[in-house]
Design brief:
The protein is built from seven helices and five strands. It is α/β, with parallel strands linked by helices and 193 residues long. The chain has one domain: Flavodoxin domain (Rossmann fold), CATH 3.40.50.360. Helix 1 packs across helix 7. 36% of the residues are buried. It binds flavin mononucleotide. Flavin mononucleotide binds next to helix 1.
Length: 193
């Protein structure tokens, strides 16, 4: 089966910094002949996890009347996953966090039902923040890493750009130009290994 790369757009801001980074990465992947799938978290109808514990028995979420079944399928299909997210109050924006929380059923599979992910996949996080401090990414990074862990995804590359606030500011940021190809390379080398 042809491997496909899933790009998770965490920001609600269209044309914003993380969207631009993901779009650039998508162009690189497509140029390399890879199939790219995109998930715009803010456009999805995702009910928040209610902590009912239903998934502890079955490994499946009891909520089925929203867009999450399609999200689970997209994540299952992906050979690699790249998350793009701004820092919102140190963590991810609410739409992305809602998606992540609904993977509690995968946490239950791994930790309660002893059903580990069958393959080891590659992942990356692209994040931007307005603050000039690099430590602003710590919480977001840990949250995304915790998600990757239950999915059996190994974080193979990150790009964290601080001091980036206005929409589209990354377009003329040299760090994006110099460091983004390395992220693409790490993902592609894992997919073609
Ligand atoms: C609701 C909200 C919360 C934010 N919280 C933080 C924060 O805690 N720390 C920070 O450095 N920047 C914060 N920012 C700024 C964004 O992280 C920054 O503008 C980022 O580049 C936006 O990326 P985007 O264009 O992809 O949405 C916040 C912005 C918004 C709208």
């Amino acid at each position: 089966m042809e491997e496909q790369i899933l790009l998770v757009y965490g920001s609600p801001r269209r044309g914003g910094n993380t969207h631009l980074l993901l779009d650039r990465l998508a162009a690189t992947f497509e140029h390399a002949g890879m199939r790219v799938d995109r998930l715009y978290c803010a456009d999805l109808r995702v009910r928040p996890c209610v902590g009912c514990g239903g998934c502890a028995e079955t490994g499946e979420c009891v909520i089925r009347d929203d867009d999450m079944p399609a999200v689970y399928r997209a994540v299952d299909r992906a050979g690699a996953l790249v998350v793009g997210s701004p820092v919102y109050f140190l963590g991810p924006p609410a739409p992305l966090k809602a998606v992540i929380d609904r993977f509690q059923c995968h946490w239950a599979r791994v930790n309660l039902l002893n059903r580990r992910p069958q393959r080891r996949r590659a992942g990356a996080l692209l994040a931007t923040a307005g603050s000039p401090s690099h430590s602003v990414f710590t919480c977001l990074h840990r949250i995304v890493d915790a998600w990757f862990e239950v999915l059996g995804i190994e974080g193979v590359a990150n790009l964290f750009l601080e001091n980036v606030d206005e929409r589209g500011r990354v377009a003329d940021d040299l760090r994006a130009e110099t460091d983004l190809p390395a992220v693409a390379h790490r993902i592609l080398e894992r997919l073609t290994a």
